[in-house]
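re: that chain from earlier
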Amino acid sequence: MSTEAKHKKSDLKKYLPVVHTRNGTYNFNPDLIYRSLLKETSISETNATQITKEVIQFLISAHLNIITAPLIREVTNIYLLKRGLEKERLQYTRIGLPFYDLHEKFQNPADNRHIISDIINWVITEYHAVNKLIKKAT
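^ sequence. v structure.
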């Protein structure tokens, strides 16, 4: 990594809070966005670079106190859509339950014995629906 790239990363610490993930908290690292876009989608390197820059600019301008990995993915998906990269957005989508729905399940003790199978069924159904859309976009 060049001295200039290291300097830019340290500058981000001034403008962005740490990123909260299920594995702990980390300093914001734009390379993770770029690499995940290349790994998880059919995006070009040029578009991945531009999307990463736009996501960083948005996160800085939003003056957030808390950044989570899922938030970064949501913002990235918005910028994929802004560039008309619908297939890549589908490939990059997060599959799972909204917080509200999961919270409601945990609040209802009657659902607790079925909660794991309900979650698995929801995720599998959503996966197949997104996979169909990706195939259509090809």
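The longest strand covers residues 19-21.
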